[in-house]
Amino acid sequence: MRAWVARAARRRAVECVRLPVPLPAADELLVRVRACGVCRTDLHVRDGDLPPHRDRVVPGHEAVGVVVAAGDRVTAPGVGTRVGIPWLRRTCGTCRYCARGQENLCPSSRYTGWDADGGYAEYATVPAPYAYELPAGYSDEELAPLLCAGIIGYRALLRLAGLPEGGRLGIYGFGASAHLTAQVAIARGAVVHVFTRSPAARALALELGAASARDAEAPSPEPLDSAILFAPAGALVPVALRALDSGGTLSIAGIHLSDVPPLNYRRDLFRERTIRSVTANTRDDGRDFLAAAAEYRLKATVSPYGFDRADRALDDLSAGRVRGAAVLRVPG
Fold it and tell me: Would you tell me which CATH number, out of the four given (3.30.565.10, 3.30.230.80, 3.40.50.300, 3.40.50.720), belongs to the domain 150-277?
């Protein structure tokens, strides 16, 4: 099969190679991949911002495809089912974090496209308990970014941001995750203000129903109850904190963030402002978000790329040239 690999010794590049079709383990599904989202985490793996867990790993953890085979311990989903392969691949199930419903913090957790080969390939495997069955009414390309961008944004919004009913939400950065999260927030009655350096992204935000869309460092038009930082720019942390009303929460929704400049306690944190980080997600987050996606019928804005242009898709994402979410179409 054809696949793209990231080499630990060669930063900022991926290479298209031929690999054997993987064999599913006893608890795994073999999936014929039809589409795979290009996530900023893939970019961090390619560029070495995330320490490589293995050489020549196949990136991609927003894969949509059809089950073509399964290990002998798998009872469902069956062959022919459309499934999603997400970032979270395995947890131990027994540590104190797993026991209290925080499997996203499991120290033995493993991840698709980092610890194990992912969806930049014609075939991929996934442990059956970690695969998602997907809502109807979406194309493969529309579903792909829901599997990480959507789920992480949902966790940042619903689990960590502390947004009150009808509250005022600031979104910093407006890429794949943010444009889905904004729609969920608006559907739930929030007033959303978007801050991003991209004029095209600001236009998309207004098109999707944001109350305002401004430059990334512009002052907020009103005090915010909550804010979510999607851009991997630590310099925006104090900007977002200063936009919060008393008691507001800033949720940082990225696996990688550049250094945060020094904070001034009285100006940036006083009056019970809170900073929270998002670390991966639980399977319940994914199930709940996909149920919300079925209810709200989100508009997933995608920029499709042919499978042979995965390197270009990553370069475009790095340069801010992608509108919405970049998605690889996998032929076959």
Answer: 3.40.50.720
